[in-house]
Amino acid sequence: MTSTIVLTLTCPDRAGLVFAVSRWIAESGGNILDSQQFTDTADGEFFLRVHFDHPETVAALRESFSPVAADLDMVFQLVAAERPTRTLVMVSREGHCLNDLLYRQSTGALPVEVPAVVSNHRDLEGLATAYGVPFHHVPSGDKAAAEATVLRLVAELDVELVVLARYMQILSDGLCRALSGRAINIHHSFLPSFKGARPYAQAHARGVKLIGATAHYVTADLDEGPIIDQEVQRVDHRMTPADLARVGRDVEARTLSRAVALHAESRVLLNGPRTVVFD
To answer: From the candidates 13, 53, 223, 250, which is the catalytic residue?
Structure first.
């Protein structure tokens, strides 16, 4: 039975890379459906995403492609395009991002499967239950114990992606390293940026004209990981802090869901502190 596969790879740029991959797909019995590539001329790194049909299993294809990759210094990933990404969602008390993710999952609009929701509060337990998703209350008082529980759930549930959907706790350096490249965070982003408590009130006090959100990979450098997606929306003097917060919640939810979809569809490749995002 033919299935659809996504191959992503990075390697030093050189002549013949696209030809080598295309030839391997054709000679092994596959058919390319879509292909995108990018060369970062600043550091000479090549990036490729190929979506193709193939009668072989992903495991067999990994074994078959490995000699090609080794010969060309490629770091690659092969996944079944139809399989949803198993995604653990972490949240505190604000439910707008969680609700958006669970709704999109339930309608098939987001290619993920959420086996659990983790929270340091019980406020959103009913929301998770309404979508039929197991809820795990993990208090944050003992940070080491809480993070050990998260890692245990990641292993037990075969989690491939962790999403911080307004999870208002700072992850330790150790947990950030353990989840490197597979944890996404969302935060508000203004011009100028406002940190700490009541950011929308701060923004209102400064009379901002744009508010927005940034979705990025989690790193030990707080809110400075590689950016996946961003959105801004124009606001004006007539809006109250509550109005700004309402608009901000919508922007945060949309931005996070887009970032999760891009990751789940293998459209995001890390390029040092930046990302290459194929549409």
So the answer is: 223
